[in-house]
Amino acid sequence: MNVLIEMSAEVYDGLLDKCDQSCAEYYTLTKANIVFRWKEDRQLKLRRILCDLNEATRLLATASRICPAAVPYIEKAIAAARD
User: Fold this and answer.
1) C-alpha span between 3 and 25 (Å, rounded)
2) What are 8's strand-pairing partners?
3) Which residues pair with 46 in a beta bridge?
4) Residue 62 and residue 45: Cα distance in Å, rounded?
5) Helix (H, G, I), strand (E, B) or coil at 3
6) What pLDDT score was predicted for residue 40?
7) What are phi and psi of 78, to 5 degrees?
8) Per-residue pLDDT tens for 7-65?
9) φ, ψ at 30 (rounded to 5°)
10) How big is the CA angle at 63 (ends 58 and 69), to the nearest 5 degrees?
11) DSSP 22-53
């Protein structure tokens, strides 16, 4: 099952900065693409990560420890993939 995680660039950068470069979760994060969306009168820069459910679950566990701000984005993506 594929999971599409989308989060703000700021939260993504915080998670990536705190993630150990030698772990698998870091590699998962580096696969992210940049996307832009318009919200009202401004453009938002987002990061989109396509991964499988196991990767997303490991990323969630890592985010829970090192970057709580990323947790809601990952949880939302996992829930959407399961629906």
Assistant:
1) 14
2) 46
3) 8, 35
4) 23
5) strand
6) 86
7) -65, -45
8) 999 999 999 999 999 999 999 999 999 999 888 889 989 999 999 999 999 999 999 99
9) -70, -10
10) 145
11) TSHHHHHHHT-EEEEEEETTEEEEEEEEEEEH
Helix axes 9-18, 53-66, angle to 10 degrees: 80
Three-class secondary structure of residue 60 per DSSP:
helix
Contact in structure between 9 and 48 (CB atoms under 8 Å): no
- In the chain, how many H helices and how many E strands? 4, 3
Q: Name the residue type at position 40.
A: E
52 residue type, one letter? D
CA–CA separation, 42 and 38 (whole Å): 6
Count how many residues are written for the chain. Answer: 83
What would the two tokens of residue 47 be? 């990061």
Residue 48 CB: number of other CB atoms within 10 A? 15
Regarding pTM above 0.85, the answer is yes
